[in-house]
Design goal:
It contains five helices and two strands. It is mainly alpha-helical. It has one domain. A two-stranded antiparallel sheet has the order 1-2. 28% of the residues are buried.
Length: 148
């Protein structure tokens, strides 16, 4: 499978952050997008609400100018962050208010990481590398069982 440079760089950074325990949804420099953007937090100025996929004025200007941050547009970055938060157990109300889980465990972080990888695959139009369902597909008509 051929993937883009931006995809490979993002996956490597997220992998390292997860294993080095520097993946943190509460820190703009250590969340999924913060790690993809080399632990910088300028991306947080693209929206007014943490976890929102709605660009503010600054975000719209960058989006309309075609600005890319390590290969990702402003709206891409907000989608990545939202996927990460939802995967970590955060949820949004109908009023778009963000609620966080009582505690963030390694399990939550891994789920968030899986959601981010799925989102990155979708953005690059590649098969979801986190989808293991292919491993379990088989032809049920060719399976024979012996009963003892």
């Amino acid at each position: 499978m051929t993937t883009s440079i931006r995809f490979n760089n993002a996956i490597n950074k997220l992998y390292n952050a997860f294993h080095n325990k520097t993946l943190n949804p509460e820190d703009c420099k250590q969340c999924a997008v913060g790690n993809i953007l080399d632990n910088k937090d300028q991306w947080r100025h693209l929206t007014d609400i943490h976890g929102s996929t709605r660009l503010n004025y600054v975000g719209l200007v960058h989006q309309n100018l075609g600005r890319k941050f390590n290969g990702y547009s402003p709206i891409d970055l907000l989608k990545i962050e939202r996927a990460f938060l939802e995967g970590c157990g955060y949820y949004f109300t109908n009023q778009n208010r963000l609620y966080k889980p009582d505690s963030i465990t390694d399990h939550n972080l891994f789920n968030g990481l899986c959601e981010v990888v799925s989102e990155l695959c979708l953005m690059d139009s590649v098969a979801n590398v986190m989808d293991c369902s292919v491993l379990f597909e088989f032809d049920s008509t060719s399976v024979e069982y012996e009963v003892a």
